[in-house]
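Anyone else keep sequences and structure tokens together like this?

Example one:
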Amino acid sequence: QVQLVESGGGLVQAGGSLRLSCAASGSIFRINVMGWYRQAPGKQRVLVATITNRGTTASADAMKGRFTISRDNVKNTVYLQMNSLKPDDTAVYYCNAIVERTLGQNYNYWGQGTQVTVSS
């Protein structure tokens, strides 16, 4: 089994910054993709950003220029640096990982979510 543990959420004023972290542990051969998604109240979960084990990133247009995703492959940890936060960024942020537990066997895992609240 694999566990994803998120940290770093909280309450921040508009224009402020937060850094989220997500550490993976357990039966891991390789983590191919790590990423962040978010879900605002009454809305569907949507992509924020992803990063491959080679460092290739992708992000939603609404976050480009404000959010930066990075990872530490040694620590099996992904980070999300969020700057210039807006009230619309308020959501539960979920960590996601596509984990290769044994060669060629990929599994999709989610963290428990961390609340980010941006006040105006």
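And example two:
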Amino acid sequence: QVQLVESGGALVQPGGSLRLSCAASGFGFTFSSYAMSWYRQAPGKERELVAVISDTGGTSNYADSVKGRFTISRDNAKKLVYLQMNSLKPEDTAVYYCKARYLGVEYWGQGTRVTVSS
């Protein structure tokens, strides 16, 4: 069974930084075959895509709202994907989820909460 576990969420002041991690595990789960994404869901809003990285890590894309502030990366040897978040704003407050996708198959983590507030 594939499991994705996010960590790193916290309360941070505006302008601060956080790094989220997503650890993947599971028998037969070939992490390096999966595109990995970070999504977020703010209170009362729909879940939205934040960033996506290709299976090799060679390509990444970002939501306009986070471009230049967030960076997605991955370590295929360790089966980890990261989201470095800088210059955080109150509107970045949300539960952040990672997702693995390959040939139409998707797996989701349970999420980690990020609160940006003074």
